[in-house]
Amino acid sequence: MEDIDELLQSFSAISELLQTSSLQNQVKQDSDLEKKVIDLETLVEKIKLQHGDNSVSKAIQSSSLEEINAKLNDLIKHCDTNLTKFDFLKNLKPLN
Question: What Å distances lie between residue 7 and 62, 88, 94, CA to CA?
Fold first, then answer.
């Protein structure tokens, strides 16, 4: 139970980070990223509701956590792909 509580606190921190104005501007400009963020937030709300419902089985909770893990991995890949686009900048040097 404590592990889930700690995990939910981590998800809250991630959610707060995703709501910062600089990231929100980025999200609004990238519809794929926006969908991934919305999906993640929906899954986090789902696990919060399941956590408070004693009738939800561990298997269902585990499945929801696996969905969240997959969505986080999607976000990581998306961000890595976008960072790779800027790799050429490391080779730029001043003219003088």
Answer: 13, 37, 46
> Could you tell me the pTM of the whole model?
0.71
Q: Please name the amino acid found at residue 91.
A: N
pLDDT in tens, 13-70: 888 888 888 778 887 888 888 888 889 889 888 888 888 888 888 888 889 889 989 9
Closest CA to 71 of 29, 18, 21, 22: 18
Contact 3, 10 (CB under 8 A): no
Tell me the C-alpha distance between 23 and 19, whole Å.
7
